[in-house]
Design goal:
Layout (H helix, E strand, L loop, with lengths): L7 E14 L2 E14 L3 E5 L6 H9 L6 E8 L2 E2 L5 H7 L4 E4 L3 H4 L6 H12 L4 H14 L5 H4 L9 H13 L5 E5 L7 H18 L2 E5 L3 H7 L2 E6 L2 E7 H6 L4 H9 L46 E3 L5 E3 L29 E12 L2 E2 L2 E2 L3 E12 L3 E5 L6 H8 L7 E6 L2 E2 L5 H7 L3 E4 L13 H12 L4 H14 L16 H13 L5 E5 L7 H18 L2 E5 L3 H7 L2 E6 L2 E7 H6 L4 H10 L3 E2 L4 E2 L10
Parallel strand pairs: 3-8, 3-9, 6-7, 7-8, 17-22, 17-23, 20-21, 21-22
Antiparallel strand pairs: 1-2, 1-4, 4-5, 9-10, 10-12, 11-12, 13-16, 13-18, 14-15, 18-19, 23-24, 25-26
């Protein structure tokens, strides 16, 4: 595949990073070493707080005040010894970075073209016309249609996938030798994800660029990474060829992450990793993973583990002499298939020919408007989960909000437990709210940061006037215990909880009024795989114990398949296919369904560098 002579672009040696805080020094990285060659895609995986992003920021020189020792050799120069001015010349020119959130990384007041040309002018002396021509050319290369027109548009005029392409264009316009991509495909549709990965691979081949990809998507990483490094609590736990590390791991932590991740074939409860990562304020004298590792021995808790080399090229910081994937005691076997939830023939949600059109009238007369939903119909049976998949903009979340009573449709009917809710007045909807609840994608954004968790979970009781005083507090504590939260944390604020714990708070609030229907809108897309497994297991357990019915919206087809008994596929406001989960996965009838499944397929054609069925049509402008 290589068209450029292979050379080591980046060499990190014995890197230690301490960040001073009011509570003490955070030991963000400890004795980390690795190499990245030209054209290589080097993957870094691990839970939140493992040190992945801090490592990237250290390479970019973006950790002012941090105490850093060791070496970061880039093209033979130690970045830690360069002056701020010298680092500024390298940053964006020879070393570039793609941030996780493209919208917050792009300035809303400036056009796309202005932001790309600013990068060009910062490092090269060229005229405005030449810089604009380069911006147009690079936008075309990253798959933006009609780049000569779109170069003058603003970030809000682009979809999420297109904004990510703009970020890639800004990063590669100066042909850097090293590109750091921090979660570049998180929360993107599988089709857009495939396009972004294919684009990065094309850049590697044509420009010889080395790529460091930071991600929690292990299934994606296993299909594209030449080498992979797994980090935990600032330590490099495992390093080696990507396929070896992510299919036959040596370290129990890597194996735990892989088992926690729902694959396209996984069934039943997921074996999540117990406990929480340690505080980085405390320097670890022994194995940092020992408190959470079922394979831990006495020596693991008292002495720092050695670095072991294996025949397939992997290196593991562990006391186990054999690979964790081949050690029966490394982790408990995956639990068996749980008891199926109680099902019945009752239809709890019936949606009939629902349509929604935005616009249609203006100060200058009538116009056709934008038709968002085009006659959608579906049924949800009691005690089951109906998955809804489709690309961004297909109408999934809009449909969910109509069912939840948060948005009125233009026409059609929605019935909940046999009662039409389209024409309900405000008082009637307050009563209906007891039956239908919603859990949102962003667990932090849906919680008031100024209110204590006990008050947040108790809001439904207060609004519905069904419990007061000590009774309300008791019921809130019971709910916290049901979803796996410590009732003693009743008076804490949302900022004092982890992402997975905040999602549990949202689920507890949704359960407060004993609903029969819960709508989940991308509930696990931003969570680490270990936390994701805990939330999916919780959702499944609550359905079995309480007889709940779920609408589950997600762009992650592996997650949808894992939790759903039936799936509907939406495209451009219409339902294009519906069927039971296994039939739809193995015998898809609609071309669009086959396209989605092909884009999500982890099989990767190494020779061509493309996914099993790349999308040649690009992103719709």
């Amino acid at each position: 595949m290589a068209t450029h002579p292979l050379m080591t672009v980046l060499s990190v040696r014995n890197l230690n990073i301490d960040i001073p805080t009011g509570d003490g020094h955070v030991h963000a990285a400890r004795d980390v070493s690795f190499d990245v060659e030209a054209e290589e895609l080097f993957g870094i995986a691990g839970e939140s707080g493992s040190g992945k992003s801090v490592l990237s920021q250290a390479i970019m020189g973006l950790l002012p005040g941090a105490v850093i020792s060791g070496e970061i050799l880039f093209e033979g120069r130690n970045l830690l010894t360069l002056s701020p001015r010298e680092m500024q010349r390298l940053r964006g020119n020879r070393i570039a970075m793609i941030s996780q959130d493209p919208l917050s990384s792009l300035h809303p007041f400036y056009t796309i073209g202005a932001q790309i040309t600013e990068a060009i002018h910062t490092h090269r002396k060229v005229g405005k016309a030449e810089a604009l021509a380069e911006a147009i050319e690079i936008l075309g290369r990253v798959g933006i249609h009609e780049p000569e027109k779109r170069v003058h548009d603003y970030p809000h005029q682009f979809s999420g996938g297109m904004r990510q392409r703009v970020m890639i264009a800004m990063a590669i316009v100066l042909r850097p030798a090293l590109l750091i991509a921090d979660e570049p495909t998180t929360a993107l549709d599988v089709t857009v994800q495939a396009q972004i990965i294919n684009l990065l691979n094309q850049m590697r081949r044509e420009l010889g660029t080395a790529i460091i990809m930071v991600t929690h998507d292990l299934e994606l990483l296993s299909s594209i990474a030449d080498h992979a490094m797994v980090m935990y609590a600032g330590n490099r736990m495992e390093l080696g060829p990507g396929e070896a590390v992510l299919t036959a791991p040596a370290h129990p932590y890597t194996l735990g992450l892989l088992r926690s991740s729902p694959s396209h074939e996984s069934r039943g409860a997921l074996p999540s990793i117990p406990g929480q990562p340690p505080s980085l304020l405390i320097e670890q004298k022994a194995c940092a993973f020992a408190p959470r590792c079922p394979a831990a021995m006495d020596i693991c808790r008292s002495e720092r583990p050695p670095l072991r080399d294996f025949a397939d090229g992997t290196r593991s910081l562990c006391w186990l002499e054999n690979k964790a994937a081949h050690t029966a005691t490394a982790l408990p076997a995956a639990p068996g298939e749980p008891e199926a939830p109680t099902k019945s023939s009752d239809i709890v949600v019936s949606v009939s020919d629902v349509r929604l059109t935005y616009g249609g009238r203006s100060l200058f007369g009538k116009n056709p408007g934008l038709e968002v939903l085009k006659g959608v119909s579906l049924e949800l049976t009691r005690g089951t989960t109906l998955g809804i998949v489709g690309e961004s903009g297909c109408g999934k979340s809009t449909l969910a909000r109509i069912i939840a009573g948060l948005l009125p449709p233009t026409s059609g009917d929605v019935s909940i437990e046999g009662r039409s809710v389209i024409d309900l007045d405000r008082a009637s909807w307050v009563d209906m709210r007891k039956r239908v609840q919603m859990v949102f994608q962003d667990p932090f954004g849906s919680l008031n940061p100024r209110r204590r968790v006990g008050s947040i979970i108790g809001d439904p009781f207060r609004i519905q006037n069904v419990a007061h005083g000590a009774e309300r507090k008791t019921r809130v504590r019971d709910l916290m215990e049901i979803v796996g939260l410590n009732p003693e944390h009743y008076n804490r604020f949302p900022s004092e909880f982890s992402g997975g714990q905040r999602q549990r708070i949202g689920i507890a609030r949704a359960l407060a009024l004993n609903p029969s229907i819960i709508i989940f809108d991308e509930p696990v897309s931003a969570l680490d795989v270990s936390i994701q497994a805990q939330i999916l297991n919780l959702i499944g357990r609550l359905q079995r114990e309480l007889g709940l019915s779920y609408l589950f919206i997600s762009h992650d087809l592996a997650v949808v398949r894992h939790v759903s008994s039936e799936i509907i596929v939406m495209k451009a406001g219409e339902v294009v296919e519906r069927g039971d989960t296994e039939t739809l996965y193995h015998q898809p009838q609609h071309p669009y369904t086959r396209e989605l499944l092909a884009a999500a397929d982890p099989n990767y054609r190494k020779s061509g560098g493309e996914f099993a069925a790349p999308l040649s049509q690009g992103v719709t402008p």
